[in-house]
Structure formats: C-alpha cells, structure tokens
Amino acid sequence: MEVMFISVYLSQDVGSKRMLWDRLHQMISSFQGECVLMGDFNVVRVESERLGSQFHPTTSNYFNQFIDQTDLVDIPMGGPRFTWSHSGGSKFSKLDRFLVTDGVISAFPLLSGMVMEKKILDHHRILFLEHKDNYGLYPFCFFPFLVSRFASLGHMESILPVLVIFKKKLQFLKINIKAWNSSNQNQLGLKRIEL
C-alpha cells in the first residue's frame, strides 16, 4: 500500500486555513494511495474540545466539512483530553490529531493516538500507534442448557441439523489442528495444543 504522510501546522488565520484545507482535499483526492494527516490543525471540531477560550463554530464547521468531503477518519486519542494549553494554565484545546483515509483503517483497524506528557512547549506530544492486546487463545464454551431450552420450546427439529453441521465442523477443526501441531511443533518450537 502506498501511503502519503502529511505533517500539518495551520496558522490562526481562518482564510489561510480554508485555502490549505482546499489544497489538502485536492492532494488527497488526486493521490492513488492512502493518506495520513497529522499535526497541529489549530482548530477544534466541537465545543467540548476547548476550555477557557472562545469556540468558533464557523471555523469548526469548515474543518468538519473538510474531513467529511475528504472521507477522513479522526483517530481516537488516549491520554490527556487536551493537546495544547496556555502557559498560564487557563486555556486548553485539542488542536493536534491524526486524520487517516479509510484504507489505512482497513489495513490497521487497531490504530489509535496517545497524548503524551507535556515537556517544555505548550503542546503535548502525540503518538500514533497500533495497539494489539494478545491475551492468548480464546476459550471455547458450549452451553448444554441452550439445547435443552430449544427442546423444551419445541424447536429441536429446526436446530438439530445446525448442531450436527456444527459438530462436524468442530471434528474437522480438531483433525486439522492436530495435524498442524505435529508438523510444525519441531520447526517452530511451538507447544502442542491438546484437544
């Protein structure tokens, strides 16, 4: 996949922002691959992303229209709620973010952003990552009471063929897993799965 990374730093001027959003929209629309935009957009999307300073709905509407027209996805951010704070500590805003095209989300569905601790500057650093938790094998559970429940309701005739097919699929899966274990155990140093 071809990915174009665009680092953004927008000025405070609304006219300059609109011109840059139009130019970015043209760039992204004409590019044949996927895009990742990141940086300081100097605008918030909703009023709750600003605290202690004036919210400008017109500028936010233009920004949201740019995101919608370009089919971008705003990556969720963990960590502190705001990415910028005034040196006096009285104003806070979420100005920094990651925007990506749908293809990036399809290829990496576990993408997220993380707002890091603030060091010297007025902006927090932001980190772009794919977070994948691995808790091991998922347990398989079969609840016999469901079968008795269907039987008591008189639906056993309708579910019996489905259960037979399901049983056959489990048997086939067990055979394949055992075959895979025996052929790959020594090559990959894997532990054998007992069924």
From TrEMBL:
Matches recorded under InterPro entries: Endo/exonu/phosph_ase_sf (IPR036691)
Superkingdom of origin organism: Eukaryota
Protein name as it appears in the record: Endonuclease/exonuclease/phosphatase domain-containing protein
Organism in which the protein naturally occurs: Lactuca sativa (Garden lettuce)
